[in-house]
Amino acid sequence: MIEIIPNWHPAFVHFPIAFATASVFFAAIGKLFRAQPWAQQCLVFGRWMLWASALSACVAAVFGWFAYNSVKHDDAGHLAMTIHRNWALAALGALVLLAVWAVRSWRSAAIPSNGMLILLIAAWLLVVSAAWHGGEVVYRHGLGVMALPTPEEPDHSHEHVDHPHDANADSKTPNAKDAGSPAKKAGHTHAPGTPPHQD
What is the pTM of this model? Predict the structure, then answer.
């Protein structure tokens, strides 16, 4: 199997988020505009997205369990991972139950009830909460990353600073032409258009 560093969980975890969001959107549109001829297509697409979210959540949960038991962490990181795991399992259970329920409504070609839509939104909120806590695990506690960047100095700037070496700049800034400069005392000359060097 191709190795993905640090594990396969991040490669699958975004699919249930996207599918669940699409399911809520199309189910709500199909119900609100059920009098329109295209509303039925929205409901069908919403059910397919729900089934896709439940299936992809199962796959993400499997690799998430592997990550939970293999990623190096400290006590704070373990607590963050546990919170993320609990929210993710709750979201997984809700998506699977709603997916089974959607099979029944699909067979009867019925418009989702208000209760079904509310539960679907609740399941989506569980997915969003699990995703939020997953981001906390990585970006706040640094778990699952191979290396952290070195903190920069407080006064560090990414702006490019030009160092002109033309004649005008030489007349305004001290350089090797100054009588008292170390370069002149040492006998060094600085050709125009080339940066000065240090001994």
Answer: 0.67
